[in-house]
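Need tokens for this chain, all 255 residues.
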Amino acid sequence: MSATLYWQVQGEGEDVVLVHGWGMNGAVWQQTAEALSQSFRVHIVDLPGYGNSAQLHAEDLNEISNLVLENAPEKAIWIGWSLGGLVATHIALNHPGRVKKLITVASSPKFAAEKPWKGIQPKVLSAFTQQLVEDFQVTIERFMALQAMGSPTARQDVKALKKAVLSRPSPNPDSLLVGLGLLADVDFRTELKNLTMPFYRLYGRLDGLVPVKVAEDVQEYTVDSEYFTFSSSSHAPFMTEHDEFCSKINQIIGK
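Here are the structure tokens for all 255 residues:
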């Protein structure tokens, strides 16, 4: 049994790390990685408990980050999607020397809603936790549908997410529970001002999990951060507006 996380590396050039979201695995980035690897050396990780790293488990963000950093490039541009955005932000805050630029995608420093903060209703997260214990396969499928909801290409997006997830081993239920706990409890808002590297945020206008209002609300907590909204996307802009997404990433990295 391997004690290290599964990594996929392709391309040459500046190091870029892609971190997937809850219930998913690195395969969701395949199309993005193929495009970005034309210009960069792209590193895709399967987080502990997911995909080809399903045999490993981590109890908190610190443990997750330490496992990821073991075989991550020494210094890279980090792109974190959804829960992966929390992992990348945690690494940027606690290991700033390893992060050249931080880019979060459809992510939030605090996923759970708490008036007036917009986000996922705590009762929705509680329901997912309950369902997960009963049938985690069905729960992940529901979450995929929730991620694509509102997107004009919702059916295709769900199909692509499902195909990617099923191409690798099923996630570890214990790790899924830890992930839901992070979505429910983590609040990085007041720490964002401590980020020392350029910080970019990408959102989907139709996202039901990270409402687009979060983009403006986060501005209050950051010293200097730029954001961009994909007009036709829900929670997975790198799938819904793939070409535009890759173009935006190239533009950010080139700054």
